[in-house]
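Hey, quick one: can you model this chain's 3D structure?
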Amino acid sequence: MTLPLLKIGAVLSTMAMVTNWMSQTLPSLVGLNGTAGPRAGTSEKITLFQSPDDGWQVYTSAQAPDGKCLCTAVIPVQGSCSRDLRSRQLRQLMEKVQNLSQSMEVLDLRTYRDLQYVRNTESLLRGLDARLRVAAESQRSLNTKSFQELKEKMAELLPLAPVLEQYRADARLVVQLKAEVRNASGRLLAIQEEMGAYDYEELQQRVLVLEARLHGCLQKLGCGRLTGVSNPITIRASGSRFGSWMTDTMAPSADSRVWYMDGYYKGRRVLEFRTLNDFVTGQNFVQHLLPHPWAGTGHVVFNGSLYYNKYQSNIAVKYHFRSRSVLVQRSLASAGYNNTFPYSWGGFSDIDFMVDENGLWAVYTTNQNAGNIVVSRVDPQTLEILRSWDTGYPKRSAGESFMICGTLYVTNSHLAGAKIYFAYYTNTSSYEYTDIPFHNQYSHISMLDYNPRERVLYTWNNGHQVVYNVTLFHVIKTSGEV
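Sure thing. Here's the predicted structure for all 482 residues.
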């Protein structure tokens, strides 16, 4: 009896030691010792997890000598911080620690329950031990009735065997848990050293403050001029060489649904993924079957509806996802279609719908303007053209184009070596040639659209779904007016 009780004591002592380590050591490792945040009114530049691969950018501001506030907002891709390697590793470790804690709680309850059982059988063991000792000294006192009683007492002790076996298994589990805790401790310490003076909780708070300041600045800034595009961030590799994917530019931030349309003509199948993570894994989606096939890849989702060009026509279609019906369709007068005026890559890309901070746009061309790009503001309810601009740029020489803040930006190629070469400003009806580098990683872009909600570029690049951060430059007066 002595040996099993010693094992029980060893298990409980080990659990107490590990639990004590968890309660005292982990808070300091994961940064639960709160530190003071940045002082109000100070000007600072914060760089968190900066890496050229993930495109994380920095928010800065400065005061000009003439009293104007010069503000540059470099927008990170939505959720880029949550996808940061160290942040993800730390969250995984925290989840592992939580699992370890839960396992130890279960182990504690099970050990306590089994210990109570052993204590209850202790008196039975002592009585049985005395009876056996008497029987061994004088076998003549062991009659049939006494022998039967002894067997019954022994039968009552049979459940003790699996309990002790469970103790042995729990002892091995505690050894395994101790090894996992030591491993987690080492990894947490390494991450803490790499992060330097910042702990995890403080980093989270600083990121939230940074994002709040950034969004507040953007609300104040409104629109700006494109001055740079980040390196590409590949979200997924799927589908054929041509296609389009997008999120709803008017949805609230909590709505992260992704729409996916593979192919550039005759397609009718639209996949709606619940979240970006579901899109990455290819899970949790519903299928919409359009009543009319599409042409090209210039589709856009705006306020719950899909806007696309009907195949073999210059008809614009507004398809409502919730009701699964076409709300309106209208011909874009004189717009070329069926590969009459496509982008340089072809693919029936005659009509390209876009959304920016100012609303819905259609980019196309006509015979009347000799194949040059026409930009038209479109009423999202009726699909009527509100106003049009002739940019003077030949559409067949453009790789792709996108709208930001009422400005059309055009790339000079859909292949490797492309750059953003031309900008047309609808607010002044003027244009300029630009030289903004654009890294075409997979060498064949068939869709390029700006999302004003997230302020990133969505791209379909040779069967890869890619995003780019954008750098917008703003000059703001002290009063806050642009």
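One thing worth noting: The first strand starts at residue 59 and ends at 63.
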